[in-house]
Amino acid sequence: MxxxxxxxxFTSEQIAERIKELGAEITxxxxxxxxxxxxxxxxxxxxxxxxxxxxxLDCEIRFLTASSYGFSSVSSGKVNIEKEIEFNVSxxxxxxxxxxxxxxITLTALHALVAKNKPASLKTCTLLDxxxxxQVPFTTDYTGFICPNEFVVGYGLDYGESYRNLPYVAVxxxxxxx
Length: 178
Ligand code: PRP
Prior knowledge:
Blueprint: E1 5-10, H1 12-29, E2 35-41, H2 45-52, E3 59-67, E4 80-81, E5 93-101, H3 105-115, E6 121-129, E7 142-146, E8 152-153, E9 169-172, H4 174-177
Parallel strand pairs: 2-3, 2-5, 5-6, 6-7
Antiparallel strand pairs: 1-9, 3-4, 8-9
Helix pairs in contact: 1-2
Bound molecules: 1-O-pyrophosphono-5-O-phosphono-alpha-D-ribofuranose (PRP).
The site of 1-O-pyrophosphono-5-O-phosphono-alpha-D-ribofuranose has 19 residues, from β3, β5 and α3.
């Protein structure tokens, strides 16, 4: 499978180190509060499992499902999100956990959906941020790494539902997806 990648962008050691720092920052910022970690499936599942174990607070873990890429390497521009949130976010301190902020379309839609339900506070945390790809302005509160404008997979990120289980983030060779 390594032949599918041009390079490893973030190793599992670099990711683990950065997640430890982010977890400590979040623990400090929300001290004394009960936090709701709201994961965006499917890409978040590895990141949430790892960062959750570095947040030393009482956390409720919830998930929403959103997708816009399907089997394509570019966003369809249309986000499929669960229309209603089936748990109570009203009055809660909510932290949305995402694997990647790319065009900004998904997080903009999700942020609006959660905000409508009147949380006490609402912040976002993404492992990767690709600022060069932004189509709608969005800034995260916690960011793992700034990512170059490359097609990346691994650590939850897929291409056609493959590669999510890689312990690192790698750049996929263009011939794989074009
Ligand atoms: C990916 C990723 C984010 C979104 C970010 O999800 O997990 O949710 O794209 O891209 P954007 O900023 O351009 O909206 P995807 O649609 O691939 O679904 P998945 O999480 O099931 O892989």
